[in-house]
Amino acid sequence: MEKEYLPRIADELLKQRLSASGAVLIEGPKWCGKTRTAKEMSRSQLYMQDPDKRVSYLKAADTKPSLLLKGDTPKLLDEWQMAPVLWDAVRYEVDMRGLPGQFILTGSAVPKDDETFHTGTGRISRLKMRTMSLFESNESNGTVSLKDLFDGKTDIDSFSELTIEEIAFAITRGGWPISIGEERQIALRHAIDYVEAIIHTDVSRVDNISRNPTRVRVLLRSLARNISTLASIPTIRNDIAMGDDESLSDKTVGEYLNALDRIFVTENIPAWNPALRSKTAVRTSCKRQFTDPSIATAIMRLTPERLLEDFEYFGFLFESLCDRDMRIYAQANDGEVYHYRDKSGLEADAVIVLADGRWAAVEVKLGSKEIEEAAKHLLMLKEKVNTKKMKEPSFLMILTGTEIAYQRQDGVFVVPIGCLKD
Question: Is 409 exposed, middle or buried (0-12, 13-18, 19+ CB in 10 A)?
Answer without folding.
Answer: exposed
